[in-house]
Design goal:
This protein has about 425 residues and is mostly helical.
């Protein structure tokens, strides 16, 4: 079924968006659990784990734009790429969280190789899935709904992963991930609405991968993504260390994550409504200010402050809903405004995922070795002031910088199918000027 604006019913949206659930079930472990997992179950120290994460994420970051350009040139259906990614995702997850007993050096190599496989497969599936959604509709209300349904399903996957890990451990999580991946992948490939088949001739010869970087609005949005991404990735990387060693509440880590992501899921309709009224950029900027004003209070918490930290998780989770739903919708609008809808989505999302991976790489590659240098030792009381400052204060400063960049960015004139912005210039002129 080829999608049009009238075809995006709720069942059609969910048949597309539910594939975000297993992708998020994979994302939570590789972004939050993997560092503590290898710190506790291998001979690797924190600096080595941070170095491997940095190397793998930088490699993945450079793979993603190449994948996006390859997809954009190929002219194949996005379903083809998702079908190819399914077995790779299953293999990579199993290798990462079920490593064999090896020597120190072999464990380091296994960790790196498993991460590269996971990131490559995740990039292939993620770029194809996001591009598929961006190509379904350029109507402003529709593109926000598409992104919100996809990211809302992703939040359900995160909540499910957090709960299963707390109750059943990594074995239970692995089985649930495999079942959800195969079920939602089959639903996506069989029932989801499909955009019109792209033609390789639609791509600018020899320069498809460079097309996004020629757009001034995209360069601004990309800068916002990087800064805001690092702000989000630092507490994600340090969450289990902060909850366990600083707050002494490691046994509540799963419930804290569930509160955080449930709040984000509940806030999705609100952010979609605010984006419809004020625009995605203004709504997203407001969410950044909310996140910074709430999260800074984590620095003042003491050991055992369960209710205080739960409140911070709840309120900052509300802001997370905007971080998930609005940037992809804003990017989809930018793609349409530049006249590249139906042709270059994969190239845009390839660079977009490059930014996401670089944010994660910087967070892990800087925060973990820095904390090790400052004397923090996981599982002990050493270096806890440095851990608290890195977890709570640094992300808030970066959030404020991202909000400032977004406020100055030329993004407010990205509107829907009207073809004109409020000052009379065409969207293409606004984005490329």
């Amino acid at each position: 079924m080829t999608a049009g604006a009238s075809a995006l019913s709720l069942p059609a949206l969910f048949s597309y968006g539910l594939f975000g659930l297993p992708l998020a079930m994979l994302a939570l472990p590789i972004y939050i659990y993997v560092a503590p997992f290898y710190a506790q179950r291998s001979s690797l120290d924190l600096a080595q784990i941070g170095a491997v994460l940095l190397a793998a994420r930088i490699a993945a970051a450079f793979i993603d734009p190449a994948l996006g350009a390859w997809m954009a040139r190929g002219g194949r259906s996005y379903a083809v790429y998702i079908g190819a990614a399914l077995p790779l995702l299953l293999l990579g997850f199993g290798a990462l969280f079920h490593p064999p007993s090896l020597s120190h050096g072999a464990t380091l190599a296994w960790f790196l190789a498993a991460l590269l496989l996971v990131y490559g497969a995740y990039g292939l599936a993620g770029i194809a899935h996001q591009s598929w959604g961006a190509a379904l509709s350029q109507a402003r209300a529709q593109r926000a709904r598409v992104a919100a349904v996809r990211e809302g399903c992703g939040l359900l996957g995160v909540i499910l992963a957090a709960g299963l890990t707390s109750v059943l451990g990594y074995d239970g999580l692995s089985l649930a991930f495999a079942a959800c991946l195969l079920a939602t992948g089959a639903l996506l490939l069989a029932r989801a609405p499909r955009p019109a088949l792209r033609s390789a001739g639609d791509v600018v010869a020899g320069g498809g991968w460079k097309v996004p970087l020629r757009q001034r609005a995209f360069r601004w949005l990309f800068a916002v993504l990087l800064v805001n991404g690092v702000a989000a990735a630092i507490p994600a990387t340090l969450f289990l260390f902060f909850a366990g060693d600083y707050l002494r509440l490691g046994h509540y880590a799963g419930p804290f994550l569930i509160v955080y992501f449930c709040a984000a899921a509940a806030s999705m309709p609100l952010w979609v409504a605010l984006a419809r009224r004020f625009g995605e950029a203004r709504a997203w900027g407001g969410a950044m200010l909310l996140a910074a004003s709430v999260f800074v209070w984590a620095y003042g918490l003491g050991a055992g402050a369960a209710w205080g930290f739960a409140s911070i998780c709840l309120l900052s989770g509300l802001a997370l809903g905007a971080d998930l739903a609005l940037p992809p919708a804003l990017l989809a609008g930018l793609i349409g405004a530049t006249g590249h809808a139906g042709r270059h989505e994969a190239a845009y999302f390839g660079w977009w995922n490059w930014g996401v991976q670089m944010s994660l790489a910087l967070a892990a590659g800087i925060a973990l070795p820095l904390l090790a240098w400052l004397g923090y030792v996981p599982g002990s009381s050493k270096g806890l002031p440095a851990l608290s400052a890195a977890y709570a204060l640094l992300p808030c400063a970066l959030k404020l910088l991202a909000a400032l960049l977004l406020w100055r960015a030329p993004l407010q004139h990205i509107y829907s199918n009207s073809g004109f912005s409020t000052d009379g210039a065409t969207p293409c002129q606004q984005a490329a000027s």
